[in-house]
Amino acid sequence: MNTSGLAKRFCCYFVEPPKFEASAVIAIGAFGADSEFEDRGDFIVQLNRRSVDVPLFFLEEFDGKVIVTKLSQGIETEWNHYHVTDRSLLISPCDRIVSVNGETTNISRMVFDCNSSLELDLVVRHSERFRVILEKAQNRLGMSVLLGIAKTDMRVSRLEDGVVEQWNALHPENALQVGDRIVSVNDITQDSAIMLRELSCARVLHLIVMRIR
């Protein structure tokens, strides 16, 4: 496995998570029939915080998208607790922030508003999640990865001849692609360094992969 690009860091914007008392949450809305977001599994999140010092999720700007890389245990975690009975409304790592206060195309503005606005109207899109099972035997893996800056996932950066190519040919519906995020390796999660070691050493790999949509 080629790991020459492992030192590369993602471009990431975030709010440092100071301690705070819980803020009041929140409202949930539904999309109308004419909404540009309907039928994509998107959902509305409305957050109100008393101060910009109230922490928010860590964000990454990648490939023209704003992506949640890690939860801060701040107001978005409070949102999740409030909506714990409906998993479709839970904010999770690898979710994409599609809209911030009506802005959908100016990525810098979206990130700025997440960092500085007291009231946030967000449209969030869950990533596609699927499983991949690889058996390396004597074959090379044929995949290079980069460690995420939040150190909780790995991003597929290159595909070559090897076991992954064979998997893709046999399972086109779950084919690995450049840009996919590996969030679990043989049930190891939340630590990309340990996940990378398992990816390199284990003969059989059970992966959980997230694809940003």
From TrEMBL:
Residues 131-194 form the PDZ domain. Transmembrane segments: none annotated. It comes from the Eukaryota. Gene3D superfamilies: 2.30.42.10. SUPFAM superfamilies: PDZ domain-like. This is PDZ domain-containing protein. It comes from Noctiluca scintillans. The lineage of its organism: Eukaryota, Sar, Alveolata, Dinophyceae, Noctilucales.
